[in-house]
Amino acid sequence: MLHLPSKAIFHLLAKSTLVKRLASRHGMVKDTGFARRFIAGETIEEALGAARAIQEQGLLLTLDYLGESVGTPEAATAATNEYLRLMRIIAEAGIERNLSLKLTQLGLDVDRATCVDNLRRILGPANELGFFIRVDMEDSSHTQQTLDIVETLWKQDYRNLGVVLQSYLRRTDEDLSRMLGLGTRVRLVKGAYREPAKVAFGIQTDIEHHFVAAMKRLLDSGQYHAIATHDPAMIEATITYARERGIPNDRFEFQMLYGIRRDLQASLTARGYRMRIYLPFGREWFPYFMRRLGERPSNVGFLLRSLRHERRNTGA
């Protein structure tokens, strides 16, 4: 397994009924909920308020309506219908028309054909309304199907479509060649899921090495891509390479998560770089929240202190 202890710890905590009860009870309480550090709110109205604040700072944004791993066709249809409703609201609100979504929310674990149909139902109106849709990458068991679906719809002329690749996966170099060949816009990330060693690099230096290698290929492609990282070393490696190759600042963008490294977000914007904020919202926020905690070892203590407080108050 990856040698990142916090990921293993939070993988286990995510299965705890106590943790889930704590999260659902207190996590999104207005102003004081601990999950609000990473999540804009549970409703589109809350998300729109956060989105406007982001845009006022000169930042770009992508909205992520949280949800994944639905278990029935009906749930997948409901999620799809919600995206159609959200796009109308976002368009009327006048904020940037950029969405990120997960294919398991649209039924990938239920039936591939259902998932493809649901994504097509979103991409059609999205194109008419001027939305860009980024397909998020999930754990490695979904990587092949995700890329296959993106390629299928790209070849059906749905070009308002992008995808995510994870540098810690051993297959990413080949996948990058495939996506660059299509001309699909890529968001490059390190990766946040707990994966077996045969699938993913487990040493941080290996992950960073492959991140930089993929970044260089993206910038050299001449296409518009996103470098998504909070790591100052990876950011400076990107800036240095772009300067060396004479690549203008407006030919790529950086991306960061809502609530993380606001100082870096502001400084990069001040330096003239495009910065997009990944803005998650929705009631199904628990899995996303646990992944964010697992990325930072210092957050282990944060959650355990909250658990102790909950035990004292409930006698659990």
Fold and architecture overview:
- It is a single chain.
- The protein has 316 residues and is of the alpha/beta class.
- The protein has one domain: TIM Barrel (Alpha-Beta Barrel).
- Helix content is 51%, strand content 13%.
- The protein is built from 12 helices and 8 strands.
- It has an 8-stranded parallel β-barrel with strand order 1-2-3-4-5-6-7-8, surrounded by 6 helices.
- Strand 7, helix 10 and strand 8 form a beta-alpha-beta unit.
- The longest helix is centred in the N-terminal third of the chain and has 21 residues.
- It is globular, with a radius of gyration of 19 Å.
- The two termini are 32 Å apart.
Keywords:
single chain; 316 residues; alpha/beta; TIM Barrel; 8-stranded parallel β-barrel; 51% helix
Summary of the model, kept short:
The chain is about 50% helix and about 15% strand. By secondary structure, the chain is α/β, with parallel strands linked by helices.
Instruction: Name the assembly state.
Output: single chain
Mean pLDDT: 89
CATH architecture: Alpha-Beta Barrel
Distance between the termini: 32 Å
Order of helices and strands: HHHEHEHEHEHEHEHEHEHH
Query: Which structural class best describes the helix and strand composition?
Result: alpha/beta
Shape: globular
* Biggest sheet architecture: 8 strands, parallel, barrel
Question: Under CATH, the topology is which?
Answer: TIM Barrel
Low-confidence stretches: none
What's the structural domain tally? 1
Top-tier CATH class: Alpha Beta
Strand content: 5-15%
